[in-house]
Amino acid sequence: MTVTDDLRGGIVVCGIVACRLTGGAEEFLLPALRRLEYRGYDSAGIAVTGPGQGGPHTVRAVGRLDALLGRLAARPLPTGLGIGVGHTRWATHGVVSEANAHPHRDCSGSVAVVHNGILDNADQLRAELTRRGHRFSSEVDSEVVAHLVEEAGAGRLVDAVRTAVRQLHGSWALAVTSGRAAEVVLACHRSPLVVGLAEDGYVAASDLTALLGTVGHVHVLQDGDIVELTDQISWTDGHGAALPPRPPVTVDWAAEDAETGVYEDFMEKEIAEQPAAARRLLERLLPQIVDGRLWAGLGLPPVPAVRFVACGSSLHASAAAARVFRRVAGLPTTVAVASEFEPEPGFPDHGLTVAVSQSGETADVLSAVEAVPGPLLALTNSPSSSLARRADAVLDCTAGPEIGVAATKTFTTQVIGGAALGLAVAAAFGRASPAAVTAHVAALARLPDLLDAAQLTSFPVADALADDLADAPGFFFVSRGAGLPYAAEGALKLKEITYRWAEGIAAGELKHGPIALIDESTPVVVVDSGSRTRLNGAAAEMRARGARIIRVGAEPEATFPVLAADEPPWGPLESVVALQHLARSLAITLGRDTDKPRNLAKSVTVL
Ligand code: AGP
Questions:
Q1: Atom 2, ligand 1: which residue's CA is nearest?
Q2: Is the domain of 458 the same as that of 606?
Q3: Is cis: bond before 375, omega within 30 of 0?
Q4: Do 386 and 503 share a domain, yes or no?
Q5: Hey, which residues are catalytic here?
Q6: pLDDT (tens digit, 9 = 90+) per residue, 137-182?
Q7: Which is nearest to 13 in space by CA: 85, 90, 88?
Q8: To bridge 454 with a disulfide, which of 225, 329, 386, 562 should be the other Cys (CB 3.0-4.6 Å)?
Q9: How many domains does the chain divide into?
Q10: Short-list 473, 494, 436, 483, CA closest to 548
């Protein structure tokens, strides 16, 4: 088994790291936290200790990791301490403040805890602990764990953590250390955690990305596991019974996969990686579509109807893929916003639900699929995620690590994976002629070259436009039919990383109200799709009111001439490359952080 088979699930809001090394813990914890910063960047902290060294010595700071590094430079921790835990936070419980930053400690300051997840019974536990005399110093649910460990007594730390964990409801990945014990204890329940052997001891993290370059393989904790890291590793269950170590999983991502390399930022890198990601996915899927193997390999029952469930960019990718199910396979297909999901009246109980999520950890999606009775297929970049584990079948997007908060290559591979799936259903059940399926497969095969060409064309055009657009307070993204998901995606990308308002809208809807917003300062991005007649009419109406039209089309005179002449059933996917570059170039002009936009995190594990 390899990491890309089994590990990418470990993705949640916030990031935790831990180590038990013979060398200095700081030298591991800080670079590892840097790699996890994309999971949350409101505040960060570390705690270190060593045999007989007291502590844990804790430093926390509000803001990005650089703020923590500044603190450490001003007030260094004792050097050479090899035991430590660290955390980078995206606030869910409690405001962004130093008191709410992890690690959290008990009343005596001798237990330090970092936690990912949500503790559903934290309020009740806090009230009980307070009644028993514990003093809390934060508003954060995680702090109850430190006090529960403290209360469990002065015996072995691993037993105290086990006692504490038994009282928790909710989800947790925990790393706990104590000044009294030269060890780290890990525990997990519905929140990912991996552990591996580095050159000078054990290292653990909530996300494999933190460990790239440090370990050759890792072990994935399963729900209920308690792992004790001393100068060796021991696995037990919630009752203290010894467990064999979980099987090793080879780390097949390179350290460079999580570095920007020659690119300015991860978003630029990940936009540029789209043709290669598309090629990799298509090389795997295309040979299996026409002969029915792709569908048969999923092991799902016949499909009377399909519903997609997703959020954000994944929702837009779902809308593009759903057209293939409708138009080519002729199946009734709906697309639902996961946070609003209710089983549709009349949808057959054995209809197929396709949950689309790059992380596979999005709480809205996980909550929506709890209610579906029929088969569930996960279309995800994280094949060991909670979603994938819950699903009856998984289609892996194999996009590689996506570090930028804005979805780019995961969106593209979701559209391709979803379209391939629609064609596979059409082929397997004879719902389209073999000739038609073969023609669509050939169109899919052309996508990597189209994406390559769009990448080459779009960067300089977007770069040249950005200065002119910098003062525009808001944008429209307009299209029709198969182009609508891409207009919506373009608007989302722009909002997310430039903090300018943007609306993705059907061209025909503009005249029913939104056109009142248009004046000389309004850029309107038109994504060509289907017949141009009505789009041209809408563009002319907006131009007459002073709007600046930015056209993404097939004709050489388009602002971004990146589209193929013939439109496939999944619509003008190439357009998204232009839209991503437009958003990124404008964000850079406006001085925004393209990879870590404000208020956002890579994966939203809260409802
Ligand atoms: C996209 O740029 C966003 N970061 C966001 O809309 C994202 O697509 C959404 O939160 C869904 O995430 P998922 O694919 O991990 O479920």
A1: 406
A2: yes
A3: no
A4: no
A5: 14, 602
A6: 999 999 999 999 999 987 899 999 999 999 999 989 999 999 888 8
A7: 90
A8: 562
A9: 3
A10: 473
